[in-house]
Amino acid sequence: QEQLVQSGGGSVQAGGNLSLSCTATKIIYRNWCTGWYRQAPGKEREGVALLDSGGSSIYADSVKGRFTISKDTAKKTLTLQMTNLKPDDTAVYYCVAEGLTCIGHWPRIAEFGAWGQGTQVTVSS
Questions:
Q1: Distance (Å, rounded) from C-alpha 17 to C-alpha 70?
Q2: What are phi and psi of 123, to 5 degrees?
Q3: Sorting pLDDT into bands at 50, 70 and 90, what band is 1?
Q4: How many other CB atoms sit within 10 Å of the CB of residue 48?
Q5: Among the listed residues 78, 120, 74, 111, the one whose alpha carbon sits nearest the alpha carbon of residue 95
Q6: 49: helix, strand or coil
Q7: Which residue, among 24, 23, 20, has the nearest Cα to 1 in the 3D structure?
Q8: pLDDT tens-digit map of 52-108
Q9: Distance separating alpha carbons of residues 53 and 39, to the nearest angstrom
């Protein structure tokens, strides 16, 4: 079974920056759709950013221009760079991966079979 191990995150004041990393133990990121979801207290899990195997990315409107998703296929590592963080970005962030295409669209959450353990990001005002 594939495992995604997350690192990074933490607490920062509004306007600050954080990064999240996700390392896979088995899957080949090159051919997979990978990305990040988040869940804030009392809210549903939502998509943050996805990166298709071809390098195309999509972002939630709320993070466009502030977050950047990237991957290092050789290191099997997915990264989310978060800048100008806002209190509304406070949530538990999860990396996801699955062998499907996600060019320009968000797959159903249930289609992602591999999930990271979750990392808390807290942004104070």
A1: 16
A2: -120, 120
A3: low
A4: 25
A5: 78
A6: strand
A7: 24
A8: 988 899 999 999 999 999 999 888 899 999 999 999 999 999 999 998 889 889 999
A9: 24
52: its two tokens: 């298709």
The Cα–Cα gap between 29 and 101 comes to 12
Q: Is 38 exposed, middle or buried (0-12, 13-18, 19+ CB in 10 A)?
A: buried
State which amino acid sits at residue 13.
Answer: Q
**What is the rounded CA–CA span in Å between residue 103 and residue 50?**
9
Buried-exposed string 3-16: b where 16+ CB fall within 10 A, e elsewhere: ebebebbeebeeee
Please say if the pLDDT value at position 45 is more than 80.
yes
Query: Looking at per-residue confidence, does 73 or 51 come out higher?
Result: 51
What is the DSSP secondary structure assignment for residue 95, as one 8-state letter? E
Asked if pLDDT for residue 39 goes beyond 90, the answer is yes
Quote the CA–CA distance of 70 and 72 in Å, as a whole number: 7
> Are the CB atoms for 116 and 94 separated by under 8 Å?
yes
- Letter for the amino acid at 79? T
